[in-house]
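Late entry, written up from scratch paper. The run itself happened at the end of the previous shift, but nothing got recorded in the book at the time, so transcribing now.
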Amino acid sequence: MSTNSSLKERSAPRVQVRDVDRVASGSPARFLLKSKAHKAKGPQAALALVKRHMPLAAAHAAVTLLADQGEAIVDVPVVEDAKALARDLAACNVTATLLKSEKARAERRG
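Output as recorded:
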């Protein structure tokens, strides 16, 4: 059974997904993201998170939450430099604040 080439063309992706250059190394970190309503540049903010190894679906969900509620807490898998991520997101009208990990808080208490 042969495959109809026109059928393949019609079922091809409608959007091109570009490859994202990801950071080479870093540590996981949790951030509080904030933005004013309808001011965040969502696609660019999502790409800044994907660049740091966050799955595209998770980055999309975080940016959607940010747009809906004005803030979102995200766990970013590979952060090379917190200031670099904050700079990338600031260019998207998003404020990123590094949150202390539970482990760091427990070590301070104990």
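The two ends are 69 Å apart (CA to CA).
(Scratch paper discarded after transcription.)
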